[in-house]
Amino acid sequence: MDELKEQIAAVAARMVVEEGLEAGPAKRRALKEMGLSAHTALPNNALVEEQVALYIAEFCSDTQPAELQVLRRIALQWMERLAAFRPHLTGPVWHATATRMSDITLQLFCDDPKSAEIGLIDMGVRYEPHTVMGLQGEPVDALYVQVRCVELQAYVGLRLVVYDFDDLRGLPRSDALGRRPRGDLAAVRQLVHDPIP
């Protein structure tokens, strides 16, 4: 394995855990922090995630499991509120690499892409719209909500990525590491009620 890529991944992993950055921005910041060219070959996200798990095990093992369960409970509450939009949990909260700095990412699969936004308005939920890269690398709408969390004494970011219902049919069953890349409401309920030690 390329030693430089592993070093970049380790620096990026620290930023993911301590600052809540996504892997992409963390890798680019790692290059700057390490004084490397912007054209340096970057590690893939799987290597960054592997380094995140190692960083958590070394520096956050006393706090991370409880923080993860809090984030999963929040995710479940929002998935239940947004059940009409077929929510799926993905990202660090699903893959057990989240800390209090991590956003919760829910993918919504809607008959009408504007219906999720209308649903939030009807609930009186304030949100910020923005665009993110979608499942096929295309730009898709996302709604960002700040959720007050008493247990963490902080606000938690909730990112709702809005897809068309038809996008649900062609989703891959596993990611590059052989894991399920997302979980539906039933799967998240099980994670919350029967956490794996």
Word description of this protein:
This protein is of the alpha+beta class and 197 residues long. The chain folds into 2 domains: 3-59, no CATH class; 64-193, Beta Polymerase, domain 2 (2-Layer Sandwich). Helix content is 43%, strand content 20%. The protein contains 7 helices and 6 strands; from the N terminus they run H-H-H-H-E-H-E-H-E-E-E-E-H. The chain has helices spanning 3-19, 23-33, 45-59, 64-81, 92-95, 114-123, 185-193; strands at residues 88-90, 104-110, 128-133, 139-149, 154-164, 182-183. It has a 6-stranded mixed beta sheet. Strand 4 (139-149) and strand 5 (154-164) form a beta hairpin. Helix 4 packs antiparallel against helix 7 (185-193). The radius of gyration is 17 Å and the shape is globular. The protein starts with a helix and ends with a helix.
Key descriptive features of the protein:
7 helices; Beta Polymerase, domain 2; 6-stranded mixed sheet; 6 strands; alpha+beta; 197 residues
Summarize the structure.
The protein is α+β, with helices and mostly antiparallel strands and 197 residues long. It has helices at 3-19, 23-33, 45-59, 64-81, 92-95, 114-123, 185-193; strands at 88-90, 104-110, 128-133, 139-149, 154-164, 182-183. It has two domains: 3-59, no CATH class; 64-193, Beta Polymerase, domain 2.
Topology at a glance:
Blueprint lengths: L2 H17 L3 H11 L11 H15 L4 H18 L6 E3 L1 H4 L8 E7 L3 H10 L4 E6 L5 E11 L4 E11 L17 E2 L1 H9 L4
Parallel strand pairs: 2-5
Antiparallel strand pairs: 1-2, 1-6, 3-4, 4-5
